[in-house]
């Protein structure tokens, strides 16, 4: 199973970043969520990371995406996300985040125009194997 | 819950969050390193057209997955897709329902939906397969 993406359309490749699935950050995330991934779960190295933790904002940062797209952060909404796990990502893993952006798409006209972009992240193991893939669609609402 | 009990149409236990408070939003902003003040400052949320600060989208998407991984071993998670259709405002709870849509061998596809008191805020699909890592 792989993430279905449009490989024909040119993408904007952002610089790779290293990301550690840090136990403290995972603990913060689960505390904020208020629900453990499963009963008895603990944020210790070797345990599966909560799936929702793998999101570009957390692993790569929102700022480079905003800078590249020019989207207004006040008008952004989270449209959808899709994640494929090629292996279970574990707390303590160190991954390279390879982040790319699709071209910005527009829908509608005038002040009602919505702009959308796909944020595509490959989470890559030190040996070059892709451990997981994420595609998040963010939408910039029209200026009203 | 065993796989033999998970035929199509099986309903998994619901998951309901507590009302999402401002402290949780602040905690999530820190955990995600999300600088967007729409989640934290009422004045910014009002400027963006919302009545109050808005919960991060990851609350609904993560809870939809958690509803399934609390019923089945999380190392079996193979993929998920979540589409958010409405915002979740501070003070609202998210209730997630999950129904097995198909079961083929050891692969189970679960349809999930997230709701607040205002209605449906997201829908998605979670696919579970045999995992390669023991928990």
In words, what does this structure look like?
The complex is a heterodimer of chains A (144) and B (135). Chain A has 144 residues and is an alpha+beta fold. Chain A has helices at residues 23-33, 56-59, 62-69, and strands spanning 12-13, 17-20, 76-85, 94-101, 105-107, 114-124, 130-140. In chain A, strand 5 (105-107) and strand 6 (114-124) form a beta hairpin. Chain A is globular and about 50 Å long. Chain B is α+β, with helices and mostly antiparallel strands and 135 residues long. Chain B is built from 3 helices and 5 strands. Chain B has helices spanning 22-32, 42-47, 57-69; strands at 11-16, 77-84, 95-104, 107-116, 119-128. Chain B has a 5-stranded antiparallel β-sheet, with helices on one face. The two termini of chain B are 16 Å apart. The mean pLDDT of chain B is 90. At the A-B interface, helix 1 and strand 3 of A face helix 1, helix 3 and strand 2 of B.
- Largest β sheet strand count, sense and barrel closure of chain A: 7 strands, antiparallel
Radius of gyration of chain A: 16 Å
Give the helix proportion of chain A (percent range).
10-25%
Q: Cα distance, first to last residue of chain A?
A: 41 Å
- Cα-to-Cα separation, first versus last residue of chain B: 16 Å
Oligomer: heterodimer
Rounded to the nearest angstrom, the radius of gyration of chain B is: 16 Å
Strand content of chain A: 25-35%
**Computed structural class of chain B:** alpha+beta
User: Most extensive interface, residues per chain?
Assistant: A-B, 44 and 48 residues
Q: In one word, what is the shape of chain A? A: globular
Q: Which word captures the global form of chain B?
A: elongated
| Count of individual helical segments of chain A | 3
Question: Given the structure, what is the number of helices of chain B?
Answer: 3
Spans of at least 5 consecutive residues with low confidence of chain A: none
Mean pLDDT of chain A: 91
Could you give a short account of the major beta sheet of chain B? 5 strands, antiparallel
> Percent helix among the residues of chain B?
10-25%
Tally of strands of chain B = 5
- How many individual β-strands of chain A? 7
How would you classify the helix and strand content of chain A by structural class? Answer: alpha+beta
């Amino acid at each position: 199973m792989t993430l279905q993406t449009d490989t024909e359309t040119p993408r904007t490749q952002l610089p790779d970043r290293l990301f550690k699935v840090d136990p403290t950050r995972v603990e913060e995330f689960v505390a904020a969520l208020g629900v453990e991934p499963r009963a008895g779960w603990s944020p210790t190295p070797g345990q599966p990371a909560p799936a929702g933790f793998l999101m570009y904002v957390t692993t790569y940062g929102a700022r480079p995406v905003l800078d590249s797209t020019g989207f207004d952060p006040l008008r952004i909404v989270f449209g959808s996300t899709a994640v494929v796990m090629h292996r279970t990502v574990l707390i303590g893993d160190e991954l390279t985040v390879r982040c790319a952006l699709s071209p910005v798409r527009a829908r509608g006209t005038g002040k009602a125009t919505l702009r959308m972009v796909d944020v595509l992240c490959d989470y890559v193991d030190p040996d070059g194997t892709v451990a997981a893939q994420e595609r998040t669609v963010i939408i910039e609402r029209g200026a009203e | 819950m065993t796989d033999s009990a998970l035929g199509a149409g099986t309903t998994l236990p619901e998951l309901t969050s507590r009302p999402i408070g401002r402290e949780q939003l602040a905690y999530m902003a820190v955990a995600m390193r999300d600088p967007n003040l729409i989640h934290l400052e009422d004045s910014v949320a009002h400027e963006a057209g919302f009545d109050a600060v808005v919960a991060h989208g990851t609350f609904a998407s993560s809870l939809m997955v958690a509803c399934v991984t609390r019923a089945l071993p999380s190392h079996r998670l193979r993929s998920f897709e979540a589409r958010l259709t409405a915002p979740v405002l501070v003070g609202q709870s998210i209730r997630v329902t999950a129904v097995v849509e198909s079961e083929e061998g050891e692969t189970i596809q679960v349809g999930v939906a997230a709701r607040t008191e205002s209605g449906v805020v997201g829908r998605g699909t979670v696919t579970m397969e045999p995992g390669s890592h023991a928990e």
